[in-house]
Amino acid sequence: MSVLILGVGNILLTDEGIGVRTVEALQQQYHMPDGVELVDGGTAGMELMEIMANREHVILIDAINTGAAPGTLVTLEEEDVPALFRSRISPHQLGISDLLGVMTLTGELPRHFTLFGVVPYSMDTGVELTKAMKSKRDQLVVKVVSKLKIMGLKATERAEPADCLNYALRPDSAELYITRSLGRN
Q1: Looking at domain 3-181, what is its CATH homologous superfamily?
Q2: Helix H or strand E segment including 99
Q3: Are 64 and 74 in contact (CB under 8 A)?
Q4: Which stretches of the chain are assigned E, i.e. beta strand?
Q5: Nearest Cα to Cα of residue 68 among 15, 122, 118, 124
Q6: What letter does residue 71 receive in the DSSP assignment?
Q7: Which is nearest to 43 in space by CA: 102, 98, 120?
Q8: pTM above 0.85, yes or no
Q9: How far apart are CA 2 and CA 129, in angstroms?
Q10: Which among 7, 61, 80, 130 could bridge 20 via Cys, Cβ 3.0 to 4.6 Å?
């Protein structure tokens, strides 16, 4: 099975970075089973096509402005995920919307989608999640691990938080670059 866990968002806008920060937490806390890939998609759009194309399942993690109260957790499945992105809620979601549209036309859309999101408390400039959002990140980690278990895939908890490498797309190209995560909150 080919599963992509994709965290997206702008880490320079506090809670907008929840998707990326959740992927970092998953990397630090769990060993993923074979066939499961964790990717920091940042604010990329079309650059994610090759990474997402023809996957069995994509689990997308993002900040979602639904109009609900800040901190509200959102779970969407299957066709509801692309439908949400057609409303183009934030600048990077515009790119995801375009990406899903092109993948539909080319027949490369992943077979299954799950979105785990949370309504942000703050979109102020800053590289740290708000205190309230950090607890939501922990809840998102549990949701992702539980989803994998339902799919018959077991993420194994690490004995100690890992010093993990993060793979992200360069903002100016489709090339991947590597950064080291030191496990900071």
Answers
A1: HybD-like (3.40.50.1450)
A2: helix 91-106
A3: yes
A4: 3-8, 30-31, 36-42, 57-63, 73-77, 112-118, 156-157, 164-169, 176-181
A5: 118
A6: T
A7: 98
A8: no
A9: 30
A10: 7
Beta strands at 164-169 and 176-181: parallel, antiparallel or unpaired: antiparallel
Token code pair at residue 105: 């036309």
Distance CA 86, CA 80 (A): 10
Euclidean distance between CA atoms 50 and 52, whole angstroms: 6
Q: End-to-end CA distance of the chain: give it in Å, rounded.
A: 31
CA 152 to CA 35: how far, in whole Å?
12
Residue 173's SS3 state is coil
Going by C-alpha positions, the residue among 7, 23, 10, 45 that lies closest to residue 127 is: 10
Q: What is the pLDDT of residues 10-51, one digit of tens each?
A: 899 899 999 999 999 999 999 999 999 999 988 777 787 788
Tell me the residue ranges of DSSP E strands in 103-162.
Answer: 112-118, 156-157
Nearest to 54 by CA among 21, 103, 93, 115: 103
pLDDT per residue over 57-109, tens digit each? 999 999 988 888 999 999 988 776 666 665 545 555 556 777 777 877 888 88
